[in-house]
């Protein structure tokens, strides 16, 4: 989880390396205060260092920005859904309750005029109670669940927005190490994506 940490003096590079804190982890908010992910062990360690920093406080979540913005659901970044992902040719029952989830697909990506009038859903001027999708959609997840901007925030990704397919990892570098200190991840060097586990 992310925490707000007010440092009385900023961590040294040695402290950061010892505790696996990267420069990217230290998101500065104001003088001396950073937002950073902490393991439970590191949080407890920092709590025992009152001369170094104030007690870490859990950072506010961004749950109010989750897709769909106007849902009355109590979803969070770590407890999201359930959610059905649209696919080409699939038909769903369309209701006022699920419309916020699918309205961007229907109106923006598939080019329909969508409106609600008198409690009825209208697509291109016709009252409807179902919809058949014209495209496949994808749900994109970042590789850092608690710190990723992904489909939980921007919703479904239509097939026509996907412009390529990864085939091979040419080189994989670890930004936290020097060139001769483990920077190159040899186990991922020149590997076919399908072979990476």
Overall description:
The protein is α+β, with helices and mostly antiparallel strands and 197 residues long. The chain folds into three domains: 2-58, no CATH class; 63-163, no CATH class; 165-197, no CATH class. Helices cover 15% and strands 21% of the residues. It contains four helices and 13 strands. It has helices at 13-18, 40-47, 99-109, 151-154; strands at residues 2-6, 27-30, 33-37, 57-58, 91-93, 114-117, 120-123, 126-128, 130-132, 137-138, 157-158, 168-169, 191-192. The strands form five sheets. The chain has a four-stranded antiparallel sheet with strand order 2-3-1-4, with no helix packed on it. A three-stranded antiparallel sheet has the order 6-7-8. Strand 6 (114-117) and strand 7 (120-123) form a beta hairpin. The longest helix has 11 residues, at 99-109. The radius of gyration is 23 Å and the shape is flat. The two termini are 26 Å apart. The mean pLDDT is 87.
Break the fold down into its secondary structure elements and pairings.
Elements lengths: L1 E5 L6 H6 L8 E4 L2 E5 L2 H8 L9 E2 L32 E3 L5 H11 L4 E4 L2 E4 L2 E3 L1 E3 L4 E2 L12 H4 L2 E2 L9 E2 L21 E2 L5
Antiparallel strand pairs: 1-3, 1-4, 2-3, 5-9, 6-7, 7-8, 10-11, 12-13
